[in-house]
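fwd from M.: "can u put these together and see what the complex looks like"

so here's what she sent:
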Amino acid sequence: MIVETEDLTKRYGSQTVLKGLDLKVAEGSVLALLGPNGAGKTTAIRILSTLTRPDGGSARVCGFDVVREAAAVRGVISLTGQYAAVDEEQTGRENLAMIARLRRFARSTAHARALELLERFDLVDAADRRVRTYSGGMRRRLDLAMSLVARPRLLFLDEPTTGLDPVSRTTMWDAIGDLVRDGVTIFLTTQYLEEADRLADRIVVLHNGEVAADGTADALKNSVGGTRLDLTFGSFEDASRAQAVVGGVVDGLRLSVPSDGSAAHLHRVLDDLLAARVSVLRVSTHRPTLDDVFTSLTAVAA
Amino acid sequence: MTASLTMAGRSIRLSRRNLDLVIMAIMLPVLLMALFVYVFGGAISATASYVDYVVPGMVVLCTGYGASSTAMSVADDMKKGVVDRFRSMPISSFAVLTGHVTASVARNAVATFAVVLVALLMGFRPSASLGSWVLAMGLLLLYVLALSWLAAGVGVIARTVESASLLGFFMLFLPYLSSAFVPVSTMPAWLRVVSEHQPITPVIETVRALLNSQPASSGWLALAWSGGLLVVAFGWATWLFSRISRR
């Protein structure tokens, strides 16, 4: 286990932000900590990356205690925080070379490493421009590159794509995917279910400082129910007549029917409705999304 | 060591690129010298050597601005995510502050150089020997170092960059309550008590005496103030920085 926490607790004043968090992360995996603002995601990352001390419980990263052996932990991790931690008035190249020097690279290898990362993150053209002139996506890429200078075993990404446009987000996702293939363990937080779905092997839903659910994206989706058919009608009357024929739940002009997702079932439903002379305007199959999981989990927990 | 040097390089590069800081460091001493020597100088002192009198005070006044800039750049780092990145890396915890302090000393050196240069153009004729110059600059270095660590500490605890700049306001005010611009003997008795018991007066008196080849009677006092302030400010700033993790 590359990350192991036991009963991790953190309070700020009278507010308990983490209420006994137990987590285990296997080396080489991607864990997404998913939750709304204030769920305790960032606090968890700050404790694991030695920035904040827990009030109770313990946490080990690569076998090192995050409080007593903070220096050893810092040697094997990298953190990309919520806000791009880059110097606006330095160029991209200077930012990278600075981190390399701080990571004890010799001067010449520091510059070689900077160039290597500029190439990898498609920043060569902007290498000698001040970061102030970079777009949001370029900044995030540079930020990520700075975290990879020393080839960490474990990378913390705190909301890596918050505030990015869709294209930049996809680019970031691709870059993160490449890291996973290189064998870097990734511990990320996100409020975007799509992001967790796309990147993570395992998702831990955090709600009010507690684990509300833990599993693969599919397992979480299955936990809230199977596939359903959504049928849309031209009138409320059609919708209720259809309900009398095939069952399901009416919501306005829409009827939702539980399904096994097979073509045969779809055929049967449509044939039955045709026989009953109810015309259907549109049909869609709906597999539960993490949104459904999230809504149901947080609704129960609240 | 490499980390501290790298951080110092970073801070110096960042201050060179910050136009406000450059103007502050070079233009301000020039303007203030002109103001004091040509505008107030005639009224304050009838003698032509007011420029000789006022140079040490000018240097110290500029260190006040310098301290303010330092506190602000530290506060800026603390506010942005940058400090989190540094703190999550295996580098000594005070390398970040050492970098800022080194840059602060460098900025003050530039400002001091500007003051002396302008003063020479305005008729400043110091009679000091090389040894006295070295002693005077050494004392100023110690004082600036102490003030820079104090500023670093203020930068760490300041909640915003704006509140960090308050230090500058305070440090700008102190020289006026010292022998920087007028002899202490011209002040009312109660104010004299204040001005004789703050660090700036002995520092200025000593530098002035050294540059004008007079006996530096307050030398030890200046040394004690600056050295004491350095120890306290260094301890305070590094303690504050190490405590961030408890937040």
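replying to her w this: Chain B has a mean pLDDT of 86.
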